[in-house]
Amino acid sequence: MLKDIFMGLSQNQLLNSAAKKYGLKMGAQSVVAGTNIPEVIKSIKELNAQGISCTVDNLGEFVFKEEEATAAKEQILQVIEAIHENQVDAHISLKPTQVGLDIDYTFCLNNVREIVDKASQYQMFINIDMEDFKHLELTFNLLDDLSLEYDNVGTVIQAYFHNALEYVERYKNYRIRLVKGAYKESDEIAYQDKKDIDANYIKLIEWHLLNGKFTSIATHDHRIINHVKEFVKRNDISKDKYEFQMLYGFRKELQLKLASEGYNFCTYVPFGNDWYGYFMRRLAERPQNLNLVAKQVFNKKTNTIIGVAAGAFLLGRLTTTKDKKKKRK
C-alpha cells in the first residue's frame, strides 16, 4: 500500500508543478545536489575529495513537447562541458523520456546521439537510465543504435523483471548498472515479493561479475553489499571490474566506508528543480528510505504537503473502488 501511494504521487503532474514552486525549500536539498550546474559541480568536487566518483542526472519529468526535450538536451550538454572544464570525476545518466522518447523515437535518438557524441570527445561515459516497462524495448533500441557508432554508452537492467537475466546476457559486453527496480509493474512481467526480487538481483550481479564487461551494483542494502564482497573475494574478481553505487544523500557513512576500503564507488547525483517524481520513486522503491532521510528531509511543511497529497491519493483510490463496486451491483 505504501509503495502504491508513493508511485501514485510520483506520477501526479499537479503536485510535481507545486514542488517546483517550493523548490528545495521543502527539504529535498538532502537528496538533490542543487538546482543549477555550479551547485552540482560543487557537490561533485566534495564527493571526489572523499574518493567517490559521480554520475549526474539532470532531473526532468513529463516531457511531451519538443522544445522542452531540446532544452533538456542543451542542459545536459552544458553539464558535460562543466564536468570537462572543472576536471571532476563524473559522467552522465539520462532518461530517454526527458529528451523526447514519448514524442518521437528518431527525435529522441538524435538528441541522445548529440549527447553521446559530445561526451565521447572527452572520453566520458553516458548511462541511459531505464524507466518503466512500456519504455524498456525502446530504450534498448536506443542503446543498440548508438552502439553502432559509439562505445561510451551503457544502460540499466532492473532485477524485478522475470526475464532480467536475458537482458543481462544480451548486454554482457556493456557497462551495465544493476538495480532492483523502482516502477510499479504487473505481476505478469515483474516479481512483486521483496525476497524474489533480492534473489534475482543477486543472481544478476553474480552472473555479470563473472561474464560481463563492467558491473555497477546500485543498492543501499548492506546485506547484498556484504554478499558481493564475499563473492568477488571468493572468485578473485578484480576491483576494476565493478563498482558500488548509491543515491546522493542516502547512507552517507556507508558510502564513505566503501570508498575508504578501496572499492570503486559512484554516487548518483541528481540536480534541478524537477526533483519531485524522482524523490517519490525513491520512497516507493524502498520504504526504508523514509528512515534514511526522515531526520534530514522532513520538516513540518514537507509533512503537511506529502500528508495531504497521500490522503488525496488514498481518497481517490477509495472513491474509485466504491465506484467499481457500484457498477458491479
TrEMBL record:
Residue ranges of every copy of the Proline dehydrogenase domain listed in the record: 41-291
Alphabetical list of InterPro entries matching this protein: FAD-linked_oxidoreductase-like, PRODH_bac_arc, Proline_DH_dom, Proline_oxidase
Pathway it works in: Amino-acid degradation; L-proline degradation into L-glutamate; L-glutamate from L-proline: step 1/2
Pfam families: Pro_dh (PF01619)
Domain of life: Bacteria
Keyword Disulfide bond tagged: no
Required cofactor names: FAD
Residues the entry annotates as binding FAD: M130, Q158, K180, G181, A182, K194, T219, H220
EC number: 1.5.5.2
GO annotation (BP), single: L-proline catabolic process to L-glutamate
Binding residues annotated for substrate, in chain numbering: K95, R281, R282
Record field: transmembrane: none
Gene Ontology MF terms in the entry: nucleotide binding; proline dehydrogenase activity
Annotated keywords: FAD, Flavoprotein, Nucleotide-binding, Oxidoreductase, Proline metabolism
Cofactor note: Binds 1 FAD per subunit.
Catalytic activity, as annotated: L-proline + a quinone = (S)-1-pyrroline-5-carboxylate + a quinol + H(+)
The keyword Oxidoreductase appears for this protein: yes
Name used for this protein in its record: proline dehydrogenase
